[in-house]
Amino acid sequence: SQQGEEDPQALSIQEGENATMNCSYKTSINNLQWYRQNSGRGLVHLILIRSNEREKHSGRLRVTLDTSKKSSSLLITASRAADTASYFCATDAYNYGQNFVFGPGTRLSVLP
Amino acid sequence: DTEVTQTPKHLVMGMTNKKSLKCEQHMGHRAMYWYKQKAKKPPELMFVYSYEKLSINESVPSRFSPECPNSSLLNLHLHALQPEDSALYLCASSQDTGARWAPQHFGDGTRLSIL
C-alpha cells in the first residue's frame, strides 16, 4: 500500500523561482526522508526529518513536517536547471508494521 | 560518482535464463537493500539485509533470490523471470538498521529487460 503521496505530480518552473513539493502520508511515522533522482540515475538522499522536528534546512532546501496533518513539504529556493529531477518522499511506519515506502514522486523541470 | 556500484548497468535476458545482479559498497554499511523501479514509478522495496542476514522479504516471488556473501557485497540471482519483471533494479546501503531506516546510498541501478 502507498504510504506517502506527493503533490504535484509534475512541476515546471523557471530558473531562479522557488519550487514547493508536498507529501502526505497515512500512518504515524518515525521519520520522513526526501530523495532526488536524476534521469537514469539512482536516488540521492537529501534530508531526513524526525517526527519530533518541525523544520530542517540544508543549503537551498527547506523541509517542514506537520504530524497533525500527516504532511511534509520540500522547498527548493532559487532553483537551477540542475535541480531538474524527480523528488520522492519516503516514510517508515515502524509501529504499524510497515517498512520503507516511497511516495509516487514529483517530476520537477527547471527551465533555463 | 556513486559509492554503491552495481553491475551490469544493462541486462537483457530470456525467460529461461539464469543471471545475477551484483552490488558492492565500501562505506562500512551493514544494511543493504534491493529495490525494483518501473518507469515513472517510485522504487519498491524487495529485500533488506542487516549484518549479512536477510531481515525483510517483501513477499517477492521466488524467481528472485538474494544473497549477501559478505558485508560489502549483495547479489540478486534471477531465474525464470517474466516480461513484467523488466525494470530498473536498485541497490542501496545504509548504516545498520538499528537506526531504523537511516539515509540510504543508492547505486545507479541495473536496467533489466526480459524478452
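qc> The two ends of chain A are 37 Å apart (CA to CA).
qc> done
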